[in-house]
């Protein structure tokens, strides 16, 4: 349930209890699409890239949920004020991720908030992302790892980790400029390359050995290349063995 949805007081009459539930029941008239476009096509592709990458690296797991550009509902006040904005990318661990959601409704998810959030900044959102939203994720969501990045600025990556004090502390970059995401056990860093015919500085994940986390299509292509390489190696090995047998006067086709 939402943090604002507390239990009725013991000793209340049935009428008082019914009134309490009427006033405090979770909102049900939620919307999940405000019709507003993203800042740019690169922002849209970046969101899909992050979600698809996490789904690929966690492909054998169903105990997480990842979403992008989705509403997160966490209080009645938020619904009343029609403040429906959600993070560009987020991940929640240790939840049932075997089914899809239209949005993330905290009181329907056992009070769970995102463990990791990434906001893709633009000139119109950058200030809010590092002030208002950062405060919300720190104080209300208590999100463990928060990152911001402008897909048009390779030097814009910043991140914070929630310490035991309950306050965000800056995540120090490694020598490559990557930031460590404790919750995902992955690096967050900038990769220069072409995606959807757009050569750009994309925000991507790297594993503990600093290997790029591949997109599903990239992983499929790599698996196919590896399989082809194994087949080529086996063919060359067979050819070498046949040549050796001929040197010894043996017919390899008769063996």
Q: What report would you give on this structure?
A:
With about 260 residues, this protein is α+β, with helices and mostly antiparallel strands. It folds into two domains: about 30-215, tt1808, chain A, CATH 3.90.1570; about 215-255, no CATH class. About 30% of the residues lie in helices and about 20% in strands. The chain has helices at about 15-25, 40-55, 75-80, 125-130, 130-140, 215-245; strands spanning about 65, 70-75, 90-95, 105, 115-120, 145-150, 160, 170, 180, 185-195, 200-205. The strands form three sheets. Strands 1-3-5-6-7-8 form a six-stranded mixed β-sheet, with helices on both faces. A three-stranded antiparallel β-sheet has the order 9-10-11. Strand 7 (about 160) and strand 8 form a beta hairpin.
Q: Which structural class matches the secondary elements?
A: alpha+beta
CATH fold name of the largest domain, please? tt1808, chain A
- End-to-end distance: 72 Å
Helix residue percentage:
25-40%
Overall body shape:
elongated
Overall pLDDT level = 86
- Count of separate structural domains: 2
**Which residues sit in consecutive blocks of at least 5 with pLDDT less than 50?**
none
> Major β-sheet, in short?
6 strands, mixed
Order of helices and strands: HHEEHEEEHHEEEEEEH
Provide a count of the helices.
6
Strand order of the largest sheet: 1-3-5-6-7-8
- In the CATH hierarchy, what is the architecture of the largest domain at level 2? Alpha-Beta Complex
- Please give the number of β-strands: 11
CATH top level assignment of the largest domain = Alpha Beta
